[in-house]
Amino acid sequence: MDNSNITNKHKKECRKQDLFSFRNLLKAYYQCRKRKRKTVNASKFELDFENELLRLEKELTNKTYKIGNSICFVVTYPTPREIFAADFKDRIVHHLFINHIEKIWNKKFIHHSYACRKNKGAHEAIKDLRKTLRKISCDFSCPVYYLQVDISAFFMSLKKDILFDLICKHLKNPQLLWLAKQIIFHDPTKDFYCKSDKKLFELIPDHKSLFKVPCRQGLPIGNLTSQFFANIYMNELDQFAKHNLKIKYYFRYVDDILIIDEDPKQLENWKNQINIFLKTKLEIHLHPKKSKLRSIYKGINFVGFIIKPNYLIIRKRTISNLKRKLWQFNQFFVKKDYIISKNQLEKILAVINSYYGHFKHANTYNLKKSIYQKHFKKLEKYIVPANENFDYFELKSSHTTKNSFSKNK
């Protein structure tokens, strides 16, 4: 046998063994820890994270790894939703898995698929969409229409067998296929810790709950893998839309689909063909009451923004969310002589800057100023604008608390 063939075979074997290596797990651990470091499970794991990762490496390599129990709870705003949050250890495995498979699928995804992808996201979607609208409308001088649709009960409707078959088409590594199977077919409703009042679960319709959907159907909302699996599932529609239907201006963010064209009849025809494809090939269907076919000049509500010909504004729900959070933060000060900690202020600051970071992509100077003046209230004592444009906020250099808090400490 040729020595070069032996060398290549050896390299392939090394790469296979390296998939679940301590090095890869450590990278996934640091990724996972970025936003979850202060949770109880993350703190417990961190106490002995090296040995925990070595144990996890052994379990994955020997295929003895078992998914732990999830934390189940209900969020009620803006609508009731059931969340299954994976255990911290399992989140590490999710990051490890995605780190490997995203290299394969990112080459297969279309350019205008924006969710859960590096260098994509909502802001990139808006940037591309605005360029497209200006181009197709000849600088907003011609009539143009848009079709916007989404999938009915999307995450709860996905069929696990179809998803796994789609993954098997392009993923040949037996270790990754084994892990994909563990994650996809795991049923979190069999082993979970409930963190919400049981009465809240009654607010969720049967077709939107993992407890009520048929066996081998539905993915838990709240997991990184579920978001990426959604892209793999919907990539089948993306390819059909681009290559079979020849749709030129097609955008997708998770299950929110937007198509631009000069002919409204063509848009209606595409909608019917898309729904047939979804029903026959993916066993899901369009939401019957969430379909829009309108002129682009009426504004397009997409990924948190309202896109108008000459300007961009923030969706009302997003603004309401921030006002509601600011009201909740100010409730800390209702209690007489309440002393807020540095840690609390840093968390509040992070939330506010997240919203204002979103706002800066739109025409929002007056909005940002108004929210600061009318809704910060007691927070103005501790949090101030970093510049005159209200681009972001900073903690005041110092203020007096029980712990003599100072920013420079």
Structure description:
This protein has 15 helices and 12 strands. It is an alpha+beta fold and 409 residues long. The longest helix has 21 residues, at 224-244.
Notable traits:
15 helices, 3-stranded mixed β-sheet, 12 strands, alpha+beta
Overall average residue pLDDT: 89
Structural class: alpha+beta
Shape: globular
Could you give the distance between the termini?
66 Å
Helix content, binned percent: 40-55%
- Give the percentage of residues in beta strands: 5-15%
- Which segments are poorly predicted (pLDDT under 50) over 5 or more consecutive residues? 9-14, 399-409
Rounded to the nearest angstrom, the radius of gyration is 24 Å
Q: Work out the number of β strands.
A: 12
- Main sheet strand line-up: 5-6-3-7
Describe the largest sheet. Answer: 4 strands, antiparallel
Oligomer: single chain
Secondary-structure element string: HHHHEEHHEHHHEHHEEHEEEEHHHEE
Number of helices: 15
